[in-house]
Amino acid sequence: MATPVVHDAACIFCKIIKGEIPSFKLVETPLSYSFLDIQPTAEAHALIIPKYHGAKLHNLPDEYLADILPVTKKIAKAIGIDNDGPDGPGYNILQNNGRIAHQVVDHVHFHLIPKNDEKTGLIVGWPSIDTNLDKLGQLHKKLLENLEKGEAA
Ligand code: 5GP
Ligand code: ZN
Questions:
Q1: Among candidates 21, 17, 23, which has minimal Cα distance to 5?
Q2: Mean pLDDT of the region 13-41
Q3: How far is residue 115's CA from residue 122's CA, in Å, rounded to a whole number?
Q4: Which of 11, 20, 38 for mutating ligand 1's site (highest number of atoms within 8 Å of CB)?
């Protein structure tokens, strides 16, 4: 049975999918829609969204998630990323979940942000916690238990 398409009439991205708000569309599939970000942090900053209204990644059915990365790859190639290896133009895929994590629009979206120089595109702040192997081991054990319970559910 096909997964039902879920919309929220008040959601700006649902409106874009339905064509009620105009967008510079890039790739569309039965499950995904992509378009240029209206307030880009770098040229060709694009958004890839599922045609399913869910606020956070874990709210989405897997088939929508599985559709998004191939679309993202297509757009990456279209903006001229074709080099292998670490040098040359790069890009970041960013997906924020929740206000604390800088999410503004509550419809899952993946940012594809070209990174061509230090000044434009994503600038990452990444405070690191000192390594504590005991704590890491305890956490690992707990997560494995939770994963096993999740699989059983
Ligand atoms: P967030 O911070 O939620 O991860 O990012 C939301 C993104 O959506 C922002 O980069 C913002 O510029 C973009 N955005 C918000 N409203 C619109 C819109 O109406 N059209 C387009 N194309 N992008 C939008
Ligand atoms: Zn929506």
A1: 17
A2: 98
A3: 7
A4: 38
All structural domains of the chain with their residue ranges: 12-125
For residue 103, how far is its CA from the centre of ligand 2 (angstroms)?
A: 13
23 lines ligand 1 (CB under 6 A): yes
Q: Is the CB of 123 under 6 A from ligand 1?
A: no
Mean pLDDT value across residues 98-116: 98
Kindly state if the Cβ of 102 falls inside 6 Å of ligand 1: yes
Mean of the pLDDT values across residues 12-40?
98
The answer on pLDDT for 134 being more than 70 is: yes
Residue-level pLDDT at 1: 47
Domain 12-125 fold is HIT family, subunit A (3.30.428)
For the chain, what percent of residues have pLDDT higher than 70? 96
- pTM, rounded to two decimals: 0.94
Look at ligand 1, atom 18, and give the residue with the nearest C-alpha.
Answer: 38
